[in-house]
Amino acid sequence: MHIVTAKEMYEIDRITMEEYGLDGRILMENAGRAIAKQLEGLLSLNQRITILVGSGNNGGDGFVIGRTMMNAGYSVRILQLVEDNRIRGDAQYHKQLFLSFGGTLLHWNESFDLKELEEETDVWVDAMLGIGAKGALRSPFSEVCTFVNRSERLTVSVDIPSGIPADEESGYTEEAIHADITYIIEAPKLSTFLERYASYYGRWEVVRIGIPNSAWSFIKRAIWSDQSVQQTLPTRSRFSHKGSHGRGFVIGGSQSMPGSVALTSSAALRAGAGLLTIGTVPEAIPSIAAQLTEATFHAMKGQNGWIQAQELDLSPYDSVVIGMGMGRAEETASITRQVVKSAHCPLLIDADGLYHIQHHKSSLRERSHPTVLTPHPGEMAMLSNQTISSVLDHPISISKTFAMEYGVYLVLKGPFTIITTPDGEQWVNLTGNAGLAKGGSGDALAGVLLTMMMQHETIQHALSNGCYLHGKSADYMVEHQHSDRDLLATDVIHGLIQIFRTLSS
Ligand SMILES: NC(=O)C1=CN([C@@H]2O[C@H](COP(=O)(O)OP(=O)(O)OC[C@H]3O[C@@H](n4cnc5c(N)ncnc54)[C@H](OP(=O)(O)O)[C@@H]3O)[C@@H](O)[C@H]2O)[C@@H](O)CC1
Ligand SMILES: [K+]
């Protein structure tokens, strides 16, 4: 399923109408009918529907929904918020149909009594503004949205909750509709995944309106779905041996921080790594070894409990991860630089490794093997010289610019983790929950990703599947054994057992 900007969606509509010849009025009919079908499944016949329409094609969808629901036996009325002469084109065509079918149309005016309307309403359908919304809500949209948000009635939005943008834009008002459900037309828009706007959507579902599949070919952004996982997660052959599942190397840890490297390694093993070696300071080995009997160790030279710069032979490994629990001292900066240069295999840089790389980003471009960076928004801000709030407002475009500029795979972690390839292709992962917002989650993710990188032909598939599995495990654990308060990274690692069992059954 693709993810689009408003501009891209308009282009897809244009291609469908001009190049394939599908009339815009039919698209609008399909949109309204697809949403009406969902509403019929959701509502009982005694629930009275009020549809709020604006001047654009979003309102046009509202007129189709009105006619279709009315025909299905529901009590429907439409409140039009703009003057009659503002409704044109396809929307005007469908408004006429609604009227000729005997629909009830109310017009907004200064003295309109919304309270009275509310008394005759069980469900608000918001068809005021769609992807054509620009800037803060103007009157009377702002007053109507404020009223609907205060009303206790079920609120269903068409395509986008009115008042929020489709794209990574700011400057919108909080009066935007807080929908219970949003039926998104054909493809989620960027704002569906932005911290600032995601909650306005409520629960969302995508409805198809007949856009041809080939019209999407220029869109390089999509959701990583259950189906994507089924198509790309490698199966294990009966004749495989430990060497077939990858030999991984985890570099990190320090005397005072052995835990994160233990989590990464434990996750890598649980995700199915064939062999795993941990490179850390001698002082950290006993405590990690006590937890992880399956790992082997490479005792690295250390000073004051931190890893020192030293020669490392990385040739035996299929993938390397560096950074967790390593500290920010100059010694660990030079080992990071050295590994970036000498790892002739896929390399994942996380945590303190990202801190060290910020001043040597150009060295990433010189690598001839894949490099993966796994920042959280704070680390992304540091790497891209942006503020954290700017990263949160523009995670999709900032990720893309960075990944393309430095030729890296980027995994920007968050409630919707975004995976970007060096070519600028992007995938959004939907699994995971608030239980992952704590220390240790990132360490566990790095371990799962390390293993996936050794077992997939394509790094993007590896990263997308790794993020999916990690989030899916967290979801499973919160559903069956934990809450999103008490979930720990070790629980997420443990939950992988169940996820693999389900996927392979
Ligand atoms: N073939 C297609 O294209 C299909 C499209 N489809 C549907 O069309 C939707 C997009 O339609 P759209 O482009 O007409 O834009 P839409 O969001 O309805 O409204 C624009 C109007 O809003 C106004 N306005 C803007 N900002 C405002 C504000 N802050 N406060 C107040 N008013 C504001 C603006 O006024 P203006 O600024 O021009 O004065 C303009 O008149 C899309 O989301 C989907 O639902 C489907 O039917 C499938 C086929
Ligand atoms: K809307």
Descriptive overview:
InterPro entries: CARKD, Nnr, Ribokinase-like, YjeF_N_dom, YjeF_N_dom_sf. By secondary structure, this protein is an alpha/beta fold. It has two domains: 212 residues, YjeF N-terminal domain (Rossmann fold, 3-Layer(aba) Sandwich); 263 residues, Ribokinase (UDP-N-acetylmuramoyl-L-alanine:D-glutamate ligase, 3-Layer(aba) Sandwich). The protein has 18 helices and 19 strands. The longest helix is centred in the last third of the chain and has 22 residues. The site of potassium ion (K) has 11 residues, from β4 and β5.
List keywords for this structure.
binds ligand NPW; single chain; isomerase; Rossmann fold; UDP-N-acetylmuramoyl-L-alanine:D-glutamate ligase; 505 residues; NAD; binds potassium ion; 18 helices; 10-stranded mixed β-sheet
CATH class of the largest domain: Alpha Beta
Mean pLDDT: 95
Radius of gyration: 26 Å
Give the cofactors and ligands: ligand NPW, potassium ion
CATH-defined topology of the largest domain: UDP-N-acetylmuramoyl-L-alanine:D-glutamate ligase
- Total number of distinct structural domains: 2
What percentage of the residues does DSSP assign to strands (E)? 15-25%
EC number: 4.2.1.136, 5.1.99.6
Binding site for K(+): 58, 126, 162
Cofactor: Mg(2+); K(+)
Domain YjeF C-terminal: 225-503
Which helices and strands, and how do they pair?
Blueprint: H1 6-19, H2 24-42, E1 49-53, H3 57-71, E2 76-80, H4 89-100, E3 104-107, H5 114-119, E4 123-127, H6 141-150, E5 154-158, E6 181-185, E7 203-207, E8 221-224, H7 226-232, E9 247-251, H8 259-270, E10 275-280, H9 285-291, E11 296-299, E12 302-303, E13 306-307, E14 319-322, H10 330-342, E15 347-349, H11 352-357, H12 362-365, E16 371-373, H13 377-384, H14 388-393, H15 395-406, E17 409-412, E18 418-420, E19 426-429, H16 441-455, H17 459-480, H18 489-504
Parallel strand pairs: 1-2, 1-4, 2-3, 4-5, 5-6, 6-7, 8-19, 9-10, 9-14, 10-11, 14-15, 15-16, 16-17
Antiparallel strand pairs: 12-13, 17-18, 18-19
Helix pairs in contact: 2-3, 2-4, 3-4, 7-17, 8-16, 8-18, 16-17, 16-18, 17-18
This protein binds ligand NPW and potassium ion.
The site of potassium ion has 11 residues, from strand 4 and strand 5.
Organism: Radiobacillus deserti
Domain YjeF N-terminal: 9-217
EC number: 4.2.1.136, 5.1.99.6
